Amino acid sequence: MAPGHSPCASCKLLRRRCAKDCIFAPYFPSDNPNKFAFVHKVFGASNVGKMLQELPVDQRADAVSSLVYEANARMRDPVYGCVGAISYLQNQVSQLQMELAMAQAEILCIQMEHQEPLAPSSATLADGIVPVHPAHSSMSTDDVVSRYDSLKRESSSLWT
Ligand SMILES: [Zn+2]
């Protein structure tokens, strides 16, 4: 270790000498001690070291960001970990898909309404169709957009 070079977050926490070829040093810089602390707490430093050693160098950064994500999720939700976040997001996706299908059905209804005046007996035909206007539906486009933004925030906050 060169003089003045500070040990990586891993070696600092484990109170050991940070070698020049330290496997943790490229991924756990000393300025972000929590990143390693959480990974160490959830997976154990030696397991993480073994996992990184088994991987080609070009895949290690991806593996570390996955481990950091999973460790952060486990700290937030000790029971379900990132599975909790995944099923929360999957529920949101299916709810939004349902809302999208409903909106598409409403569009079809409105399009059919506009075609009505062509038929001579439009008054009687229209009685059978209950028009659903976007203003009356429970969720506007703005709501869906803001829900999507909060989803993005939810998923990105796990990476910090
Ligand atoms: Zn180190």
Automatic annotation (TrEMBL):
Residues forming the LOB domain are: 6-107
According to the UniProt entry, the coiled-coil residues are none
Please, which domain of life does this record's source organism belong to? Eukaryota
Pfam families reported for this sequence? LOB
Q: Which InterPro entries match?
A: LOB
Family in the record: Belongs to the LOB domain-containing protein family.
The entry's protein name is: LOB domain-containing protein
